[in-house]
């Protein structure tokens, strides 16, 4: 059975954004294919938003690890649902840099022109991710 999980978090204060993102993507590419996990990791210099899709057990187990990861804090679950089909099946872990997000795109889903997923609904966060996918802002398809 397939599920989709979406959460947001904040980069740990002392962490270097570029090197943390690079090491997360390396871990994702090493682990996700064999566990049937697909998804998207969106990040700015301060926040993460990640959608994970896959079997319920695999997604729940990975999320449990992610919750314990000290490279980020304030992990908040925004959305969890059983799904009939994946939305991001083409990505082992696609990546979008939210620092480069168009303000008009952001304002369509957010009350302020600053990305703050902790203040966004799960529905709007997913809609934002879909728009990133539709506008080819997500890289790293494999
Ligand atoms: C924001 C964020 C996203 C992550 N996404 C993934 C992922 O998609 N796949 C993965 O294997 N690890 C991911 N990790 C890393 C895991 O938290 C964990 O460090 C990794 O799975 C290795 O765990 P292990 O050493 O216990 O096997 C992520 C970490 C963070 C902070």
Can you walk through the features of this model?
The protein is α+β, with helices and mostly antiparallel strands. The protein has one domain (2-134): Alpha-Beta Plaits (2-Layer Sandwich), CATH 3.30.70.100. 37% of the residues lie in helices and 29% in strands. The protein has helices at 17-35, 56-68, 103-109, 122-134; strands at 2-11, 38-43, 47-55, 72-83, 94-97. Residues 9, 24, 27-28, 31-32, 41, 48, 50, 62, 65-66, 69, 71-72, 93 line the site of flavin mononucleotide.
Share of helix, binned: 25-40%
Q: What would the principal axes of the Cα set say about the shape? A: globular
In total, the number of strands is 5
Number of domains: 1
Structural class: alpha+beta
Q: Report the top-level CATH class.
A: Alpha Beta
Computed over alpha carbons, the radius of gyration is 14 Å
Number of helices: 4
Task: For the largest sheet, list the strands in their spatial order.
Answer: 4-1-3-2-5
Helix-strand string: EHEEHEEHH
Mean pLDDT: 92
Q: Provide the β-strand percentage band.
A: 25-35%
Tell me briefly what this model is.
By secondary structure, the chain is of the alpha+beta class. It contains four helices and five strands; from the N terminus they run E-H-E-E-H-E-E-H-H.
Topology record:
Elements (H helix, E strand, L loop, with lengths): L1 E10 L5 H19 L2 E6 L3 E9 H13 L3 E12 L10 E4 L5 H7 L12 H13 L8
Parallel strand pairs: 2-5
Antiparallel strand pairs: 1-3, 1-4, 2-3
Helix pairs in contact: 3-4
The structure holds flavin mononucleotide (FMN).
């Amino acid at each position: 059975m397939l599920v989709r999980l979406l959460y947001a978090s904040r980069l740990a204060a002392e962490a270097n954004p570029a090197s943390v993102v690079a090491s997360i993507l390396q871990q994702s590419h090493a682990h996700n294919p064999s566990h049937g996990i697909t998804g998207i990791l969106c990040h700015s210099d301060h926040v993460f938003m990640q959608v994970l899709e896959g079997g319920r057990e695999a997604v729940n187990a990975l999320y449990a690890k992610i919750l314990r990861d000290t490279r980020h804090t304030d992990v908040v679950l925004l959305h969890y649902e059983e799904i009939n089909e994946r939305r991001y099946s083409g990505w082992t872990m696609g990546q979008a840099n939210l620092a480069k997000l168009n303000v008009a795109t952001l304002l369509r889903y957010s009350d302020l022109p600053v990305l703050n997923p902790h203040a966004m609904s799960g529905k709007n966060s997913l809609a934002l991710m879909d728009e990133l996918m539709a506008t080819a802002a997500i890289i790293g398809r494999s």
